[in-house]
Amino acid sequence: MTQYGFIGTGSMGSMLIRKIIGSGLVTPGGISASSKSGISARALAGTTGITAEASNRSVAGNADVLFICVKPLEVRGVLDEVRDVLKPDALLVSIAGCVSLENLRDWAGENVHGVRVIPSVTAEENAGISLVAWGHGVTPGDKNLVLGLLNAISTAVEIDEQDFDLYTNLTSCGPALIVAMMREFAGAASRTGTIPPKLAEYLVKETMVGTARILEGGQETFDNVIGRVATKGGSTEEGVKVLETRLPDVMDEVLLALDAKRRVVAEKVAGE
Ligand SMILES: NC(=O)c1ccc[n+]([C@@H]2O[C@H](COP(=O)([O-])OP(=O)(O)OC[C@H]3O[C@@H](n4cnc5c(N)ncnc54)[C@H](OP(=O)(O)O)[C@@H]3O)[C@@H](O)[C@H]2O)c1
User: N or C end of the chain: which has fewer CB within 10 A?
Assistant: First the structure.
């Protein structure tokens, strides 16, 4: 039976473990995990039935497929720690932003098969996109395995590593960016009117959920949805015009800010 290891059981690592168990593709008995303090890994073992190991080396030494779910600046240290116990031909799946496939090969060794995945918190709801880029040594069997897992909890999209950052902005940063915009929308309603903030938040959230359901399945285009609500000569059309005038600059600035921060982290990762 394929043995899965997870190093890092924070927000993303624990979600991936819960979701792949929930998919039925992997049983709890096939998963072991570790974390820095051990607390989150033990807590997850208590709720899911996986094995919490006391060390990263125990997890890595047993794993046919090893997920690295720690922050970008922790990845090198973790791989230095486990490199000599990795199984030959182990499949290494890193979800860390700013850690390249080249970094993985340099730090984990040539024998290991490297994959980069950027999941999204939307996988919690079996929705959204998981990005994947294939690295050195990856076989068709590795691809089937990774795509099978990702498609069970989301939709996997295979891309070149050079496109990762731009796509990540949309799929993985997207939930926070969209919700931040909606928070401002609700905030404006309570600033300019008499709606209490909590009620404004509730109304916007419910509207977002309904709008997402209209968009679900990909048949409806953005333009169609806008056209159904912002009818010619109506008040919504005026609001949409303001957004169309002001938002392009704001969104350009958002993407530039994400890029700038990523460059700083990538430099730190490379210079470690
Ligand atoms: N959050 C997102 O939406 C998202 C999306 C896509 C990709 N990612 C990537 O996912 C990775 C994890 O992010 P996260 O949001 O899950 O972070 P997080 O919640 O802070 O979790 C980090 C985990 O790493 C563990 N850890 C840290 N140093 C370790 C070490 N030396 N050995 C073993 N475990 C160690 C921590 O252990 P403790 O539990 O003991 O503290 C914790 O369980 C990041 O690289 C991020 O770029 C995140």
Answer: N
